[in-house]
Design brief:
- The chain is an all-alpha fold and 176 residues long.
- The chain folds into 2 domains: 2-80; 88-175, no CATH class.
- The chain has 6 helices and no strands.
- It has helices at 2-22, 51-73, 77-80, 88-128, 133-154, 165-175.
């Protein structure tokens, strides 16, 4: 457990630095402004498109640094633990949840984002979580509907529809 904590903190810190760097693209550098153009405020227009990803990545990096400090000081529970990182149940759940996520990604190509999230929620809630059918179907139905109105209608971000594309044409006629 002790090794897992520091390895995870280091990997996440490196990822957060990468995300901070990627949030500055495009353009990577504005020589007139002397800074990353889409990270900072541009000509009084407000934050650029990479401002919030940069800030979130920066906070993530600081959190990782704090985890590393606590690890070196030995003040966190995982840094004092000698238990294994994953026991048999943990490995089983990692495979079941990870396999479900891989299945979700494959289903995006076939059933589209909304169909895939519907099927994944049924798998995750009913099969893994053992929730009731009513609760599972309520959330599995509400999540794609809310996502559709948020992404496609409000934000105008079209997500993949897969073979379900014809079902969305009447909705686009109504809402767009």
């Amino acid at each position: 457990m002790r090794k897992a904590e520091i390895v995870t903190a280091i990997v996440l810190a490196i990822l957060s630095l990468y995300f901070m760097w990627k949030s500055g693209e495009p353009p990577a550098w504005n020589p007139d402004a002397g800074r990353f153009a889409n990270v900072g405020i541009i000509d009084g227009e407000g934050p650029g498109s990479g401002f919030w990803p940069f800030c979130l990545s920066f906070v993530m990096f600081l959190s990782c640094c704090w985890i590393m400090v606590n690890w070196f000081r030995g003040t966190s529970a995982p840094s004092q633990s000698t238990e294994p990182f994953l026991d048999a149940y943990g490995r089983k759940m990692l495979l079941l949840v990870g396999g479900g996520l891989l299945g979700f990604l494959v289903m995006i190509e076939i059933a589209g984002f909304y169909g895939a999230i519907f099927l994944f929620m049924i798998y995750y809630m009913y099969v893994l979580g053992r929730h009731s059918v009513v609760q599972t179907l309520s959330i599995a139905t509400a999540l794609p509907v809310i996502s559709f109105f948020f992404f496609d209608v409000a934000m105008r971000i079209v997500l993949p529809k897969g073979y379900m594309e014809p079902l969305f044409i009447p909705l686009y006629d109504i809402f767009l």
